[in-house]
Amino acid sequence: MKATTPASPPRRSPPGDLAIWVFICAELLAFGVFFVAYAFARVGHVELFNESQLLLDRFSGALNTLVLITSSYFVVRAVAAIRKGEATLCTRWLLAAIGMGSLFLVIKVTEYGHKLEQGLDLGYNLFFMFYWTMTVFHFMHVILGMVILAAVALKAHRGGYSAQEHTGVETGASYWHMVDLVWIILFPLIYVIR
Amino acid sequence: MQYQSQSVAKLYFIAAIGLFVGQILFGTILGLQYVIGDFLFPEIPFNVARMVHTNLLIVWLLFGFMGAAYYLVPEETETELFSPKLAVALFWIFLVAGALTILGYLLVPYAKLAEMTGNDLLPTMGREFLEQPTITKIGIVIVALGFLFNITMTVLKGRKTAIAWVLLLGLWGLAVFFLFAFYVPDNLVLDKYYWWWVVHLWVEGVWELILGAILAFVLIKVTGVDREVIEKWLYVIIALTLITGIIGTGHHYYWIGTPEYWQWLGSIFSALEPIPFFAMVVFAFNMVNRRRREHPNKAATLWAMGTPVMAFLGAGVWGFLHTLAPVNYYTHGTQITAAHGHMAFYGAYVMVVLTIISYAMPLLRGRAAANSPKAQRLEMWSFWLMTISIVFITLFLTGAGILQVWLQRIAENPEPFMVVQDKIALFYWLREITGVIFLIGLVVYIASFFVGGDEEEATA
User: Which of A78, B49, B271, B306 could pair covalently with A93 via S-S, beta carbons 3.0-4.6 A apart?
Assistant: First the structure.
């Protein structure tokens, strides 16, 4: 059995391209600044933040958390598949992850629609300024992540990756995990923690 | 020079340098008017000199960008320009229109100029940096469209590279956002709001794409590092630029009557705007360290490394200094803004245009790779003279600004504007002296084109 397993190169750390890690660090810094600003603003308006938080739809937020974690799992499977040289399988897992990304967007847009119907827009109060800016900023990142995964899936489909050389898949996966990670912090911070 | 049609760039570069001289001359006049208020009055009042100083800067940078595009695009796309004749025709139209506009500023009172040029039909005049008569603005749009048509057609028929696409995106963005110069709502808040769509989205948005593309092109040439590596960094840099810069417009919306949330949005996003510039510094130094060849044009390499450093300091650090709303509440519209403006424009845009000129001009003048060592030495002297001068201009203006903020806005008994201006006059004198040294640096720069022409080329 062992002889048939393709030899894989030694794992590098961090996985993927170094440039994506510069980008990821910059992005985490951007979100970090937002989290600090949020905390800073909340100190002065605890009541307002607590009351406004109750107006959010925690169910759709939780559902979206599950959706993104599932998508990350799919991406993990895609990387595992390409490490074994199974490009078709890798492509399918990536498409599944993109599918979950789309589901996230649909749930989020529905949530946004309800908020706007209630008149809870960007200028409603300080809390909703943060709610809109941070979630829309994250929303844009989900779209960017999907574009990156789609580019990787296309290249995988065309046979551009192998068990030996698949830096691109790891690069895309790293970015997607960052998008997921940010949501995992963002969701409790805005929707839950009081 | 690999393609015949690249030679049109030479015209644009020469005009750019010529107008640069005009800009600096008016800069030294202005600097003196800060301390000797009636210097050259009534022939050249302060407001006219300022208009000429800023307008010339923008116009010569545009000449530089166009020259850069005409030089770089044929080489990137591996094909001749779509129409070199159109490029030459547009050059003369742009130059004559620009010269007439500047003469208009200098020879006729501004209100009279507005009347003469039919501003009543479509009023667009009277806004800072966009003072050009409406017909000049229409001329700019026509020239820009012709230029974009020429460049886009060239890209479409040739090899498609990331550098060409990023440059094209930046140039199209430049033209599209200029259209807001024609939109002048009666409501003053809206007027300012959209004015920034030209001013901010140019210099902190699409111009940065042009800067990134030109820098990446020169770095590929002088370092010989793989295109894939350089293009990857270019993508990271432009993504960071757009993520931070677009919403970063909010740092101009603090006190003009826009909703309060802009104080948060503007502060947070613009605080992140130094990141792409920092990435640019890492990128340029990394590429030069990993170089696969020793390019004989040392001067161009120096400019290419200086650009991101000075852009990071001027646009990044000096921008961050006063970008947070609570800080800006005190510093708004003081000499701190002027300090930032000088170093940011020099570091980002002046230097990148001088970088491409430094790389391309020897080739356009028939050299195989670089100027003679003598010419390069002189050029590198001018690099240090101008760069160190701008650092000191910035420091003196920052000193003036800090004092101004303190005396006029924070002190227990705030003093009136003009009283404070008198008290900080020493800083203005120091700035003026440094400005003259900058002018000397510029003279040395121009001299570098005329020395060592009959000597052998430098070798690596």
Answer: A78
